[in-house]
Amino acid sequence: MPVGKKELERWSNAQKARNRAGSAMSEMVRAAHASGTLNLSNRQLSEIPEELLRYNEADAQENWWEVAELRKLDISHNTLSSLPDALFQPLTELQVLHVGNNGISSLPRSLSTCGGALSRLNLAYNKFQSLPPWVFEELPLLTHISLDHNLLSALPPSLGALAHADTISASNNCLTSIPEIMHLGSLRTFILASNRISTLPDSIGSLHNLEHLELGHNRLSTLPGTIASLSSLVRLDARENALSHIPAIPRSHALAELLLGFNKLNTLPPTASESAPQLAVVDLRDNAIDGEDVVHNLLPLRSLRALDLRNNELRGLPAELGLKTTVTSLLLEGNPIKAIRRAILAGMCVWL
Prior knowledge:
Layout: H1 5-35, E1 37-39, H2 50-53, E2 72-74, E3 96-98, E4 120-122, E5 144-146, E6 167-169, E7 189-191, E8 212-214, E9 235-237, E10 257-259, H3 272-275, E11 281-283, H4 292-296, E12 306-308, E13 329-331, H5 342-345, E14 349-351
Parallel strand pairs: 1-2, 2-3, 3-4, 4-5, 5-6, 6-7, 7-8, 8-9, 9-10, 10-11, 11-12, 12-13, 13-14
């Protein structure tokens, strides 16, 4: 059957479009040869372009010695389902890799060739159910790792060996526990929110440089006593768990936010104000707090400005609370308090 004129036009237009796309890709790769940075995000890529696989090859308009090592590669926000093994073999100096927001479920072993340089790895918003055991062993220089919004049920034990890690984020997965982490001495931010974690290892207390610990929306019923050793912590968020007991508050003069709302707590360690004298925000809403002593033990906090006690079992408040001029927000609605002393109401915003 002879090919019609319209079919020929469609084929010709499609061929021209492919040629334009290939030309544009060649130009971007050529620009990366000068800068060492290649941004291919939001390009509707379903596979890695051949131009990238041949990155180290100079084209007719270049000299081979003018080709800079690729140090930053962003292929995020595409429709990639896999990464070819050939991709990373020539990229031995790659420092930053962003492959988030794709449909990738596995990593090629050739990624380990980047182990001498790679410091930032973003795998967020993909379909990883597991990570290969070698991934952190052979990428020892990683400082920032993003694994959020995947399907991970576990993290490889080699995670605990990342001595240079500054930030690890693995929220919105299916994690039930985390491996031993005693060697993460440089870690400052650890985000584990929205998983299924029921226990934390005692080794979490060895993270002496940790500043931000995000544990919200998990299945924790308690926290390890070693959490008291987190001496640099600034923010602890353990909201929306099943906490019925907290053995200790981090002994940190930097701790400013203690967020424990939506749990099953009926008390706090009595030494909270001694352990964290700079606490400014305390969230205890939707727990089972029933004693004035919890509030009384927070009164020595000189920087306390927001105290959320909504939906607990409080029937009264210590009169001394009215002397806390630093407190500007006191949330109490949902408690069986019959009346609040006028002294407490003075000078602060109280929601009943």
